[in-house]
Design brief:
By secondary structure, this protein is mainly alpha-helical. Helices cover 42% and strands 10% of the residues. The chain has a 3-stranded antiparallel β-sheet, with helices on one face. The longest helix is centred in the middle third of the chain and has 19 residues, at 69-87. The radius of gyration is 18 Å and the shape is globular.
């Protein structure tokens, strides 16, 4: 099983404003439930990000449920960060190698690891750091063959807290179980 690797700094570690600048915004109105006023103007927001990875191409996140375009754009951007967290992998200190040293990681990544190491790992979806922390945990689990027990010491937390963090975002939980299946391990429950 191979997942696309992000070149350089993973997009989830970029400032939100930087990611938004690198996305292409498209707006349109959408039909559907919500009464006579729902999306009569082009309030739906569709953000497209070119990953630069040929196996993936571009990723699109959308939000059409609000009447204000700005709110939809903000929601679509949050969804984009979660999509990137699950879709792209980057290096991990869990798998040490000659080319993986502390100076190979961004300051943001090192700071996030330091801040959340030993924490309860309970992050709500509105927490702007959640997609980035989820990216770090998924990177580590990717290199650990989907075994939370192998990375819990690195995070200085329990295996169940790591699993609960991953379980809080269903696409991430599915990814970890796909990784485990690839390594002939039973799924997490």
């Amino acid at each position: 099983m191979s997942l696309p690797m992000s070149d350089g700094v993973h997009p989830c570690f970029w400032p939100v404003e930087e990611l938004e600048k690198r996305c292409q915004l498209r707006t349109q109105s959408r039909s559907g439930p919500g009464g006579q006023h729902r999306n009569r103007t082009a309030s739906g927001a569709f953000l497209t990000f070119d990953t630069g990875v040929s196996e993936i191409g571009a990723i699109t996140a959308e939000a059409t449920e609000q009447r204000q375009q700005a709110r939809n754009r903000s929601t679509a951007l949050a969804r984009m960060r979660f999509l990137l967290a699950v879709t792209l992998r980057s290096r991990s200190p869990v798998k040490p190698s000659v080319d993986v040293k502390a100076d190979n990681f961004s300051e943001v990544e090192l700071e996030l690891r330091a801040r959340y190491r030993g924490s309860p790992m309970k992050l709500n979806d509105e927490n702007v750091a959640k997609p980035a922390v989820l990216t770090l945990v998924l990177n580590d689990l990717w290199y650990a063959g989907g075994q939370p027990s192998l990375i819990s010491a690195h995070w200085k937390t329990s295996t169940s807290k790591l699993v609960n963090l991953v379980r809080s975002h269903p696409p991430a939980f599915r990814l970890v179980n796909q990784i485990r299946q690839h390594h002939s391990r039973p799924p997490l429950r």
